[in-house]
Write a structure and sequence with these properties.
By secondary structure, the chain is an alpha+beta fold. The protein contains ten helices and 19 strands. The protein has one domain: Anthranilate synthase (4-Layer Sandwich). α3 packs across α9. The radius of gyration is 19 Å and the shape is globular. It comes from Picrophilus torridus (strain ATCC 700027 / DSM 9790 / JCM 10055 / NBRC 100828 / KAW 2/3).
Length: about 375
Amino acid sequence: MIYNNIEKFEDKNFAYFCKFNGNTGQERLFVSDDYNTLYKDSEGFLEGEVYDLINKNEFIPACATYSLANYFNNIYEKEKYPYFYYMIPERSYKSNIERKSFKTVSLKSNYNDISMSLKIKELIERIRAGELLQVVISREFYLKNIDFKRLLSSFINNDSSLYVYYYKFGDTRIIGSSPENVFTINNNIINVRPIAGTRRRGSDEYDDKILENELLNNEKEKLEHRMLLDLARNDLGRICEPGTVNVDYSMKIEKFLTVQHMVSSVTGKTNASLRDIFASVFPAGTVSGAPKKRAMELINKYEDNIRKEYAGAIGIISKDYTDMALVIRTIFSHDNVVTARAGAGIVKDSIPEDEVNEMFSKAMTVMGDYYEESVDNR
């Protein structure tokens, strides 16, 4: 398996990207001495050498940060941050991979964050006043003593997420296990899979089913999901041929290591450029809210620091196939400062304490067995 050989390239820049279909998947590893960073966008998005390689149908590993989403939506950011990382591979490797099994972990959270609870209360009042319908607020968790190799192995073997990735660009590391895409394009067919509505995993099969039924019958969760499904349809409607946007399925339950979610799938046919696709669908409504621009303005106001790569897009780009995972359930390392981040969708009927616990439960998905010793609540 390719992921076992990543340590050989610690002195290089690399991008490991794996997409699963059930227990089987395809892993890719790209390696290079150099990588590129874009601090501003232009009309010629991804032009030059990268554009030429994409047109040759070669894969380019890339990460679009949340700052690019703010750029497209004219949102002022508190600090300057790169919009886009990409790497022109000098070497690449590809292999099939199989998960032997994956675990279920039941975590009952009773996490207390008074500051975040107060912010959520204010946001609920704004929603009830008609300012917006939903906003996804997030917070950062500081970690320590993280073994990245062990974490990657855990994501691949113990979780059931759609994507596993580990990108190293200079002093930045991004390692995650994401259940959701921002978009996937295969020969002009674009797919978006919005996820909204969360419950923890049960302590046994019976308890798990009770929590699943509770989620499927919760009006607040279904309302939130419908809003984000409509947002995904509208986003695709702007870049797809008329009459081609369809909902493949709606509010299907998918189960992961510590949580279970409601998931929908929307597809359409598009000939839009990558720049126009990013401008239309980015950021995902599931990490911003509705209406999207107002939600993003409030995120910028209420969150203590910028999101950086969190809630961005990470994956591989080529002419005929592009697959960008949503950067959630992810651990970040910048100059040896290691963090995780998690959010919760706030609507008019939200209960602040429940939303805080949802953030912590989601963070546990990536913290795994580090959570007792490594969460630093500064």
